[in-house]
Amino acid sequence: MKTISEELVRVLRNAKNVVVFTGAGVSAESGIPTFRDALTGLWERFDPQELATPEAFMANPDLVWGWYEWRRALVTNCRPNPAHLAIAELQRFVPEVHVITQNVDNLHERAGSENVIHVHGSLHHPICSSCRTPFHIHETIDVTVEKERKIEPPKCDSCQGLIRPGVVWFGEPMPEQPWHIAQHKVLNCDLFFSIGTSSIVFPAAGLPITAHENGACVVQVNPHSTGIENVLDYNLVGKAGELLPQLVDLAFRN
Fold it and tell me: How far apart are CA 101 and CA 108, in angstroms?
């Protein structure tokens, strides 16, 4: 684990506008498997990338909806980890903090973060597959979801189309409004954190580069190397749940 420098502590202490960009590695520390992890139980014979497509939903909506309800149940049973909590705590000390996440869970919100931009959608905000009308879904999930493989999707109140998960599937563009907001926030930040993301899924992976090109200080927190080391001002190698609380403590409590 790389030691946090006094210089980085001063940068955070003096920051006025922070953007925190998070990926699957942050949620993984709460026990949520990434798309690169092997599935378990009833789902172990499926490839996540084969289920997460519009074509899969059209061919077998009960299977895809059942898998996403299983994922939502998994998220509901997980808790925000120290990285989520440290990110939320930044709001107490920095005038402006925005979280841009590739994750489709709600752990940032549950940790207390207020300005969260979901560029890949959310498990908790399904939409109609036909007319795109948002659909309200109960947060409480019956435990039998974890035992079932296929669940019939609900139908849209407006057009009777099938409700689909409100996430970005492979082959789909990112939602336009959140993406434009995310770009705007990156262009105006003075400190940019890239945390737990592999930095290989574009266009979101280009955000650290945009921040660097516009003069922001760019900090990566990741146990693994990525492809953006050439734009980093600081590279903290280790778990976000260990490094971020330490950084917040050093910047604002010492």
Answer: 9
